[in-house]
Amino acid sequence: MTSLRRFLTRLLNSATWRAQDERLREEIEEHIALQTEENLRAGLSPLEARRQAMLKFGGVEAMKQDYRAERGLPSIEDLGQDLRYAIRILRKSPAFTAVAVVTLALGIGANTAIFSIVNAVLLQAFPYPDPNQLVLIFNVPLNQPDALSALSNREFTQCREQNRVFSEMAGNSFHDLTLTGAGEPSIVNTADVTPEIFSLLSAKPLAGRTLLPEDGKQGAAPVVVVSENLWHSHFGSDLALIGQSITLDMRPFTVVGILPASFHYPDGAPRQDVWISVAQDPLFGPRLFQPGSRVLSGIGRLKPGVSVAEAQAEMNTLGMRLAKEFPAEDSGLTIRIEPYRQFVVGDVKSPLLILLGAVGLVLLIACANIANLLLSRATSRGREIAVRIALGAGRARIVRQLLTESALLGLLGGVAGVLLAAWGVWSLRPFLPPGVILINSIHIGGSVLAFALLLSLAAALAFGLAPALLATPSNLQANIKEGGDRTGQRGGQNVRSFLAIAEISLAMVLLVAGGLLIRSFALVTVVNPGFDPRNVTEAEVSLPQFQYATPQQWTAFSNELLERLHAQPGLRDSALGGPLPMDRQGEATFAFSIVGNPPLPPGRSPTADYATVSPDYFRIMGIPLLRGRFFSDQDSPSNPKAAIISETLARRYFPNLDPLGRRMMFGFPPDDSVSREIVGIVGDVRDAALSRKPGPMMYVPFAQAPLYGAEVVVRSSLSASSVATGIREAVRSIDKNLPVTDIEPLNDALGKSISQERFRTFLLGSFSAIALVLAAVGIFGVMSYSASQRTREIGIRMALGAGRGEVLRLILGQGMKLALFGLGIGVVAALLLTRLMSSLLYSVSATDPVTIASVTIILLSVALTACYIPARRAMRVDPMVALRHE
Amino acid sequence: MKQKTDVLQGTLALMVLKTLDVLGPQHGYGIARRIEQISGDMLAVNQGTLYPVLLRLEQEGAIASEWGASENNRRARFYRLTREGRKQLQVETQDWEQTAAIISRFFQVKTEDLS
């Protein structure tokens, strides 16, 4: 009680210290006056009476100090005093303050920006309750645990019914449907789900309801849940929409509810526009109950207390049982679960952490630079500090004062850094690779600000502590004798050398990392994709399933489309293909078997990427024919089935054999056991991404394996926009309700496939550049300071006959010693650390000698230049001036 | 050094309280004079050290202060004992007497008493 009261009074006193000081002054005056009168009465002379009175009272200043300590909160008051003093000091040297704040702002800004991305992607909670209980459930071959694929309906049902680990389980799939009757025909992102997904993810509708278990049954009335966004953009936000019917793929669905824009699954995927039961999907619905057709991705919620490992063990048992009971479909397969979080952020986690590490290094270099500046300043402030110590300030008190200055600098840098980060994130947004990173969730919020604040203070401590301790030597006498000029010089020189070495080695690590990424990116961009994307435009047309239900209709449509395209001047070179290289929905991969080879157990059969193409496709894409022939109009549905394979497939699966004339069994399900004769071998193509080595690939003629939609490729010298208009017109003249999407030059699609690589190369490259500049400035600072400190020594040497060359060598040698030391440490550290990023590199080893050598040369020449300028200045020293200097 | 001041402060505080208890409201100089008179030269304290003690007691609520007129009709700060201060004085007097009694008994003990 008493102590609380004292604290409150003290707090109050701190605020009213002026009035309090006045009161004490008056009391002291009165006290001394009374004592003086008493002394006068005792017969002393007026002067002596006052002197005695003052003697009796004792040291006024010491008492005042005690009184103040008793009165207020000395640490808070000191802090205020220190802050005022620090502001004054920083304002008195604007150049120093500006350099330090800008340096820090770069470091803290880069960290804050990257942290805001990390925060949004890796740390932010998912919009579902208890996201750590969520797991995804996949089917994988026993020998390829990373080849995740969807579950068949039977596997899904068995999983849901026969296990003790999930409290709830749901399945989902994605499909694009065509929405007509609400403005322009458009493609809507459709989530095909089992109804349990809504309760599993706790999705609450904005209006109406979500899907009910009976909506998921076969033969139920088709109903749809619409997203808030689609409701705004296509239906005028009218609540009357509920109960009405909308047309998806030419089939009516009754709207039962509207889901808020905040709900989406999976987190980070493109936003879904509508949710329907998977049984109602025109593509997946009919195939759902076919044995062996796998369309459902599983998501489950673990029961409380069940670990992922336990759940996986249960799945292994289930997988074995299924393989035994249904060997035709499930032998060689098992079921694998993966925590949801890991699945969503898996791809970007390591690049992000590497970037975070990189900006951490940038900040360290920035701190080293500022520590350096502070050291030089502390030396010039030596006399001031010595006087303050002589006047009775404690060492701790002065260290605290200096640290307050550092903290103020740190905070200023932090504020500037946060502004820089906000600007950086804002201006980088358009360049962020689409996909996992939810661009809109990146913002400078509370936790990011807290991070920036902590970082600023930590940085302040990092760059402020050593200079503060060095500036306040324990041996005061020597200090005053030296006139303060050399305060902490010896220790300071060691610390400076250490800082220079640290900067060089940190910069080395960063530059090697940046260099590796740049080299690997350069290799990716010049890689031959296996086709010629120049002047080729692609466009996608997808046919509504209900309207175009049979393969005959698909073939008829595509023949018609090609005919109309060919009729337009400039669009003569057009063909169909699906999927095209770099297709945003990914490549299609199917298992195949070679007729005449011994049969392999299911799940072990080799796979290859698959495409169905019209005869001119290879010519238009510039894919070379190596042997045999291209497809032709002869490869019609009624003639024998033909196939063309890629060079890699031929080499890998027909070693020392002639594949021409052999037969392979593969195809788009349900045609997966159609036997096709190999008629040609073509060059390899990078179809998944530029950075991925081409795998085996097989092609079939479009006429023999049509798709319900097709991608058009047109090679034309016309501008991209007139090609787009031409394609649109051709499609519209056949069916005005068909949307044409994703019209873009093939080169752009290629660029998008490496957008992540480009983005991280750009970021890490920029950080390396900042690091290089900071390190150069740092080395320059250390060298010019140490050269200026040796002015006298140089003067003596020159007076004794040393030549300018020798002086130059002296200074350069000292600098180069530091540089080489730093480079040595840097190479070792780089070799250890870049191993972590080998997964990001394309055909460059993490210990690439070319990169390491060129970075060493760059840094060495930077260090040499940074040393040469001060060395030249030292060389020009006039011995007389130097000797008189002290 | 610091410890010595603390002990002194504690004693000084008790003396201040007792003085105010006996004499009623007093200004700082009056308290100092009184303590000096009673303790004589035995307690050679700088009078100034009294003021931090007065402040602490006031902050603890044991004494209160207000401006008044001194003997020579000048403005002076008068301190008086509060009810809480009176209680504190009682408690501390008891404590002190107890401590003093124990200490004095210790000094009276001779070696043979312990054997």
Describe this structure in words.
The complex is a heterodimer of chains A (886) and B (115). With 886 residues, chain A is an alpha+beta fold. Chain A is built from 28 helices and 23 strands. In chain A, the strands form two sheets. In chain A, strands 12, 13, 14, 15, 16, 17, 18, 19, 20, 21, 22 and 23 form a twelve-stranded mixed sheet that branches. A six-stranded mixed barrel of chain A has the order 3-4-9-6-8-7. In chain A, helix 18 (489-525) runs antiparallel to helix 24. The radius of gyration of chain A is 38 Å and the shape is elongated. By secondary structure, chain B is α+β, with helices and mostly antiparallel strands. Chain B has helices at residues 2-23, 28-39, 50-60, 83-108, 111-114, and strands spanning 26-27, 63-69, 75-81. In chain B, strands 1-3-2 form a three-stranded antiparallel sheet. In chain B, strand 2 (63-69) and strand 3 form a beta hairpin. The interface between A and B is medium-sized, with 29 and 23 residues.
Concise synopsis of the structure shown:
With 886 residues, chain A is an alpha+beta fold.
Write the layout of secondary structure elements.
The complex is a heterodimer of chains A (886) and B (115).
Chain A (H helix, E strand, L loop, with lengths): L1 H14 L1 H25 L4 H12 L2 H12 L2 H19 L1 H30 L10 E8 L9 E2 H9 L4 E15 L5 E8 L2 H5 L6 E2 L14 E5 H8 L9 E4 L2 E9 L14 E4 L6 H4 L6 E9 L5 H18 L1 H4 L2 E7 H41 L1 H9 L4 H34 L17 H26 L4 H6 L7 H37 L10 E7 L8 H17 L5 E6 L9 E4 L1 E2 L12 E7 L3 H5 L3 E4 L13 E5 H7 L9 E3 L9 E8 L14 E5 L7 E7 L4 H15 L5 E6 H8 L1 H35 L1 H9 L4 H30 L15 H27 L3 H6 L2
Parallel strand pairs in A: 4-9, 6-8, 16-21, 18-20
Antiparallel strand pairs in A: 1-10, 1-11, 2-10, 3-4, 3-7, 3-10, 5-8, 6-9, 7-8, 12-22, 12-23, 13-16, 13-22, 14-16, 15-19, 17-20, 18-21, 19-20
Helix pairs in contact in A: 2-3, 5-15, 6-13, 6-15, 6-16, 13-16, 13-18, 13-24, 15-16, 18-24, 18-26, 18-27, 19-22, 24-27, 26-27
Chain B lengths: L1 H22 L2 E2 H12 L10 H11 L2 E7 L5 E7 L1 H26 L2 H4 L1
Antiparallel strand pairs in B: 1-3, 2-3
Helix pairs in contact in B: 1-2, 1-3, 1-4
